[in-house]
Amino acid sequence: MTGVKGMLGAVVTAPLGALARVLDAPLRLWQRLTGQGGMVAFFLLPNMAIFTIFVLLPLVINVAYSMTTGAALFLPERTYVGAAQYERLLRCADYTNLATCQEDQFWIALRNTGTFVVLQVSLLIVAATITALILNRALRALSFWRAVFFFPVLLSPVVVGLIWRWILDRNGVLNAALVGMGMDPVNWLLERNYAFSAAIGVTIWAHLGFFALILLAGLQAIPRDLYEAAEMDGTKPARVFWRITLPLLMPNMLVVIVLALIRAVQVFDEAYVLTGGGPGTATLFLTQYIYEVGFASLLKNPGLAAAASILMGGVLILLTLLQLALGKRNERKGRLK
Amino acid sequence: MSRAVAFLTRRKGGERWDWTDVFTFVWLGSAVFIMFGPALWLVLSSFKSPAQLSEFPPTLLPYEAQTVVVEGFDRPLPLFTVTDEAGTRTLAEVRRVGTVAQMVDPENPGEVERVNIANRTPVREVGFSWGNYLDPFLRFDFLTYTKNSIFVTGVATLITLLTNSMAAFALSKYEFRGRGFVVVLIIATLMIPLSVILVPLYSIVSGVGLINSLWGVILPTVATPTGVFLLRQYMLTIPDELLEAARMDHASEWQIYWRIVLPLTAPALAVLAIFSVVWRWNDFLWPLIVLSRQEVYTLQVGLNAYAGELNVQWHYLLAMTVITMIPVVLVFIFLQRFITAGIAGTGLK
């Protein structure tokens, strides 16, 4: 273990070391000229420059983009239209009928994403909790079982999408199994409800291990003596679960739920490779809508895409604040203990 | 053997089977099948020939039709098992006309028999179509895609490690005005996903002329707040006395960074390196937007483009999917401990 760790450290630091030696002399001079302040600036500069140009600046000008119209890419060449893009996104003649909305695709994407978030997150959390509870039973070969669930987490979304597209194909192995059992084959990716369920199932498959792992860490942190005390009192297992396990797991559980929500709101790659948003618009989600409107369609509309992404960003910021607040609360509780 | 049985039938502790024991077995058993099965099926399928891939129901293992060299014919002939009134025998096909095939006995090639194709099945053996793996590299651009992916992953990871550790060092070991602000700024953007800033980011990358350049994929991803955050938390645990002692010995601040702090941060750097490799190798949405010319595609974008064609050539596509999966599977097999520890400890992925 330490051998691997040391080797890894060496592999990581060796190329950096070579660079560091070259920079030794010039930086000594720089330090003499500018003092410690100059060195702090030097250490911060590369990261903060990239961060400012490619994260902060886009964040700020995104708002400006969402208030302009036209196909021009650069901000100064675009026409200011105020809140017109937001109005276009949100205006419907009759809110009970999405077909009357000016941007009905946006509303369809919104409805799909909403449904997806509710179903996927609740199923995912239930499955992850069950998995964590099972892994927490003094199992032999725990690392193997953990690996079983964790394996798909590292796979790329494109690979995940293609693996399942192949299995769910009309002539795929799943249909072969159905026919083998005397049932009719199903057009998994070409029927609306099946395709939507497939998107939910595949994303759960891909992310289950990640969430189970965090919950497992939470379960393992629950003091054993609580369970021993409960056993001595002859408490029923169900009662132990509701009264000890679940309440003590709650802090982790909340963080996991918020993380899962944040991920689900942005669902894109796996679903996109799996179904391409289809059939029709059955699995069109928000991120894909933004991608299509801003980049992929013939009539690119960067302003509209920016407005939609700001609306999505708003939801994500709320969720992030919620997560930070939960984290703070956990930290305070941890200190009190 | 008895130990294996004891292991398989052990229970929660009591003498009788608890329903939770049954449930655990069912859950774990189906998990092995559901989690590993699809990837295994991908690998098995990737070795099948196009004809085999279009078979329904599919066979588990890849097979190859057997051929035989028969005297008097310059090319090898496919072998079939024929079953009809005359009994069961193995014949080679000379040519096929409609539903009737002209076949010969390989041992006795003089006499041509006419056989209805309903009465015969091809003779085949387990065999691997390695061409599925070779052709995409030789005839298509997958070699370029692979090189691009390796370049992006390697360079982005190195830059990430360097810039993030420098920033984390400044933010953990120096007192200066605005430090708190920078730290808060970084934490605040921890969860801002790329999908929220696609449009303005594209215009900026386009403004600096990096559209259709691998650097356009690399640069926006390297200043990860997650990395800075992770490394800073780790560096905060390094005692300042070490740094002071080095200053007494006239070490420059730069030397303190790379000779003292960096080696001590190696475990955290290793975790970040592993994550960075997996992130950058798997990146899809941003490369999809920035890279629109074939010669700069990464594997992920190339695969997607290939899968989006009207006539999907599954035999090549499946093989290339396996290739794309390999580095991540290697990371998983050898470094799983670091990753699971990293996730359980920090909740990052």
TrEMBL record, chain B:
CDD domains: TM_PBP2 (cd06261). It comes from the Bacteria. The keyword NADP does not apply. Keywords: Cell membrane, Membrane, Transmembrane, Transmembrane helix, Transport. It is a multi-pass membrane protein. The keyword Ubl conjugation does not apply. Residues 146-335 form the ABC transmembrane type-1 domain. GO terms for biological process: transmembrane transport. One of its GO terms (cellular component) is plasma membrane. It is found in: Cell membrane. PANTHER family: ABC TRANSPORTER PERMEASE PROTEIN MG189-RELATED (PTHR43744:SF12), ABC TRANSPORTER PERMEASE PROTEIN MG189-RELATED-RELATED (PTHR43744). This is Carbohydrate ABC transporter permease.
